[in-house]
Amino acid sequence: MKNNLQVVVKKHGGPEVLEIVQGVAPEPKPNEIRVKITVAGVGYSDVMAQRGGYPLAPKPPFIPGYDFSGTVDEIGDGVTDFKKGDSVVGLNPYFGCYSEYLCIPSKFVVPYPNHLDSSDVCSLVLNYLTAYCILYKKAKVKTGQNILVHSAAGGVGSALVQLAILSGANVFGTASLQKHELVRGLGAIPIDYKSDDFVEFIKSKYPKGIDAAFDPIGGNNLRRSYSIVKSGGTVVSYGFAGNSFGGIVPMIYGVIQLALLKAMPDGKKVYLCALPAESKKDILWYREALSSLVVLLEEGKIKPIVGEKVKLKEAYKAHELLEAGTVSGKIVLQCS
Length: 336
Description:
Low-confidence stretches: none
Strand content: 25-35%
Order of helices and strands: EEEHEEEEHEHEHEHEHEHEHHEHE
Largest sheet: 7 strands, mixed
CATH superfamily of the largest domain: NAD(P)-binding Rossmann-like Domain
Number of strands: 15
CATH topology of the largest domain: Rossmann fold
Number of domains: 2
Shape: globular
Helix content: 25-40%
């Protein structure tokens, strides 16, 4: 038996509710592999789940964490495409990655070359897969199109900017002033969301509107983003947290808002991108997209921004940083 350090949320609250629990490594069931996790990703969904504002999270007690990279440690019956020692990356749509060991169906993981940085690889999952889904599955962005990315210095935002620039799009990105150099370095034109009105900024350059806008906030921000997209353009929502920690009411309101926007007879297309659901309902797309991102990383065409690395035992610090909103890019937990 192997010891297994885990981070558990036994009750909702601030970062201090993240508890360290020492358990035993689970045994893989048929068609599962056991992964010794090297790095686990920290996302805003984890913070909302910790606060009790993420309706898709399990009820306490639960282990947060959607994304991970690591090494195959044990093989369950029926698994033929992996062996012990393989470097793997994946998304666990059921949470549970804040842990030293994880058992997961092998269909949710893909291999990666072991010379790649495990933190960079982990960053591909939640952030870059979400961006990949938004750009290519929903908006179908093309060369020369003009798009707006909100929170462009964040994990998903920076991934959206990099992939959109790689596709030949012209990108505008909202961010606080201290993060403009980063956004500009990625190839986007930064907009200070605190001092500039992004609607006025975009309309001054494109009175008829831009081709696409991507919004993780919802509410009034989504409505205003919709207003700057031209007829025939696309709006993709991928979150309803607003300026709080989510909750069932903002989610219900967000779904209703999307339905109302979709019903508008102005030729604009409106989509929702919810990655865990996308990965479960279209496993082939998920595996092909994640494998493609691994190739782009290996070729040096994308470079994840890893803002902070925090030890698993200090997971609460990672949540404090994410709640403060001061870190650019991805925050990861070092699990081994």
